[in-house]
Amino acid sequence: MSRYFEILTPPDGLKLPLVVHVPHCSREIPEHFRNQFALTDDELDTEILAMTDAYTDELFQATIELGGLMFVNRTSRLVMDPERFPDDEEEPMSMKGMGAIYTKTSDGSRLRRQSFSPEEQSDAMEKLYWPYARALGNVVRECLDRFSRCLIVDAHSFPSKALPYEDNRLVRPDICFGHDPCHVPCDVLDGLKSVCAEQGWRTADNSPFTGSYVPLDYYRSEPRVKSLMIEINRGRYMNEADGEKSERFAEARGVVEALLEDAVSVVTAC
């Protein structure tokens, strides 16, 4: 098992074709990569606070109890973002310095030092991106081999107010459901929206963020792989100023558990 990511499974084995991917919950900057950054420790802490989907691994913890699998990134997205396309020419966010290897901060300032080299970028890709991508692809393949289908839930959160690199004109609901037309699990999505309505949580499709992670080997080529991003507004569960959980954390975790239970009920009925 890599020290950079973790695969969590039920004690008695995987029971259903559910893979919950948690890519952005970590604050960890491995020592090997720290000297690549142009920021002071305080500046880096501020950027990590802004960019981390804090506690999403805890919010989606019910996955294991329900019989699904969690694939959790244990390295900060500032070091490597596994959800980006590996080729900057294909990755829209690379225009903002946020491809697989970030070079800019959320406000457009320099993140990595000016002398950051192509060799160092390749090193980060070889040590972090490709092992991660292969391992997650293997998990999905094993799920397909066993169940003939796989539902990926892409677990995220987003700040209640747009960061400088984001489009502040987009609606910021309580929960954003992101999906790609080739992989959207319509049967699951409709039920999740009903769950949110019952809880009084506002939802939106693909706003403020779009799409949902699918391993490259299956992206827009394997219809048995479905993927749905669930993005939770951070104002619903944490104090965004200091990064601590708020008194509403338990409520948010309960809503996420209800969403996962509903998704599982649909998956097991198929």
Total number of helices: 7
Count of discrete domains: 1
CATH topology grouping = Aminopeptidase
Order of helices and strands: EEHHHHEHEEHEEH
Strand order of the largest sheet: 1-3-2-4-7-5-6
Helix share of residues? 25-40%
Measured by DSSP, the beta-strand proportion falls in 5-15%
Shape: globular
CATH superfamily caption: Zn-dependent exopeptidases
User: Quaternary state, please?
Assistant: single chain
Largest sheet: 7 strands, mixed
What is the overall pLDDT average? 97
Q: Report how far apart the termini are.
A: 32 Å
Cα radius of gyration in angstroms: 18 Å
Low-confidence stretches: none
Label the structural class. alpha/beta
In total, how many beta strands?
A: 7
The CATH architecture is 3-Layer(aba) Sandwich
CATH class descriptor name = Alpha Beta
Task: Describe this entry's structure for a reader.
The structure is a single chain. By secondary structure, this protein is of the alpha/beta class. It has one domain (5-269): Zn-dependent exopeptidases (Aminopeptidase). Helices cover 33% and strands 14% of the residues. The protein has 7 helices and 7 strands; from the N terminus they run E-E-H-H-H-H-E-H-E-E-H-E-E-H. The chain has helices spanning 31-34, 41-51, 56-59, 62-66, 118-147, 186-199, 249-269, and strands spanning 5-8, 18-22, 69-73, 150-158, 175-178, 203-205, 225-233. The protein has a 7-stranded mixed beta sheet. Helix 6 (186-199) links the parallel strand 5 and strand 6. Helix 6 packs antiparallel against helix 7. It is globular. The two termini are 32 Å apart. The model has no long low-confidence stretch (mean pLDDT 97).
